[in-house]
Amino acid sequence: MNIDRESLPLYLQVKMTLKEEIENGKYPRGSLIPAEPQLEKIFHVSRITIRQAITELEAEGYVKKARGRGTTVTYSSRINESANAIRSFTTEILERKMKPGTSYVTLKKMKPSKSIQDMLELEAKEDVYQLIRIRTANDKPIVLFETYIPGHLELSMDPKAFEDSMYDQFEKANIGKPSVIKETFSSMLADMALSKALHISKGSPILKRIRLSLNDRNEPIEYTISYYDGQTYEYSIELHQR
Q1: Which is nearest to 12 in space by CA: 60, 64, 56?
Q2: For residue 100, what are the contacts with CB-CB under 8 A and spacing of at least 6?
């Protein structure tokens, strides 16, 4: 690999190259990067330069050196969502300096199943909006959202309106954003439909989240089943002793 000796310091060029390769998945989390003698040959630089580059990568949390074991990749490309506040997917992705998007969206009105009817506390004859979306981060499919919204709420029937934050559409329709959210989590393996939707292998781990959102009058306004790529997305919860 050629290094530009008239440009940035050599160690910095080595660091930037290795960092990019780690982020792009050439060296996944838990794997070993090439040993120092190999890196010397790859980059045509001295051992001191390689060690300085690795020291900086370790300081930034990308790798961990262990005597006799080599240098292990510790960087994780997973998106971590915090359960400490109510945020939309769009907000979560933007806060991580990534580009949110939607690769697929459908919207229709339909008769709900008995379980959805009960969750949304609907009368027997009431319809629901069914909103199906595949949301992306930096153009990579991350999650499939299957959302049901009470049909008596006045929402736009234009699917394109929901390519960004659904909660922004709630505010535009004077529904307001959720005041209370109740969630349950489980794990499952991707079937063929999910593998195609999220561009993952059949049998890959899926984080399944069921969300019921209530307004400030404690009325259900959203019931969503989310299927996250378990290799890309993780959820953290912070608890405090009372």
Answers
A1: 56
A2: 89, 90, 93, 94, 135, 136, 137, 164
Q: Mind listing the domains of the chain with CATH numbers?
A: 10-73 (1.10.10.10), 81-236 (3.40.1410.10)
CB contact at 8 A, 100 and 168:
no
Rounded Cα gap, residues 38 and 168, in angstroms: 52
Residues pairing with 79 in the sheet: 233
Query: What is the four-CA torsion angle of 36, 40, 41, 43, rounded to 10 degrees?
Result: 120
Mean pLDDT for all residues in the chain: 89
Assign 192 to helix, strand or coil.
helix
Asked if 32 and 75 touch (Cβ cutoff 8 Å), the reply is no
Give the pLDDT confidence score for residue 4 in this predicted structure.
66
Provide the whole-model pTM.
0.69
For residue 153, give Cα distances in angstroms to 40, 175, 198.
Answer: 64, 7, 30
Distance (Å, whole) CA 84 – CA 157: 32
- Token pair, residue 125, equals 């004859």
- Is 201 or 86 the better-scoring residue by pLDDT? 201
Q: Give the pLDDT score at 42.
A: 94
